[in-house]
Task: structure prediction
Amino acid sequence: MSELTPAIQTDNLTRRYGTLTAVDQLNLTVPRGVIFGFLGPNGAGKSTTINMLIGLLPPTAGTGRVAGFDIRQEPLEVKRRIGVVPEGMSLYERLTANEQLELAGRLHGLTPAEIKQRIPPLLEIMGLQGSGDRMILDYSQGMRKKTLIACALIHAPQILFLDEPFEGIDPVSTRALKNLLREMVDQRGTTIFFSTHVMELAERFCDQVGIINKGVLAGVGSIAALRAQAGLPEEAPLEEVFIRTVGAEVKDATLLSWLTGRAAGELPAGG
Result:
């Protein structure tokens, strides 16, 4: 992939389910060597977009290019160059973490020597160095997520797709992973494309952000650019930018007055 070639580029990418349009003529360009946050409300089309880009879901119309290869015409070339941590846990429960990582390495064409060299440091940075011989069946949700991330990294992908990557992972491992991902971007030019609902994480971690709403790209660019687009001041948090961009209405908690103890229209304590 040339340095001038975008890591990800879509051309009217569309996915319909009957009468429902989950992703509607998406035109998105993600440059190489950035951490790109893909944000949106529940059901906005984030996972559908990712699944089309990684070749799990065929587009209804339009197309895209990942690492310079067409997702429709060259799906194997795309898959050779990407790592994926999907929304669901896709691990073989009767394998150990060592065996799961070995399988991932072999599927990506690594030599036995490369696999043997890469597994120990991956387990160590995930905090799993003492658990590599335990079956996935005995792992907690956080340990499974960390194993899945290690599998996505073992072949040193050019582009890494992460769907809610830090959900269920302890703070120490989260910090180590964020440091690792930033080094991959800064030192190797890896591109990280990830979705999250945690606005604070996206604000601190991302170089660029795209916001999708009802299948349509509502905004894209740096957080500073999105603030300006939304007509908000420089100090406005990303959460406020997101709410303004998608045109969301924050529900009034007094609808549940038996829980809040507050009548409709009444200001909260201290307000």
In short: DSSP finds ten helices and eleven strands in the chain.
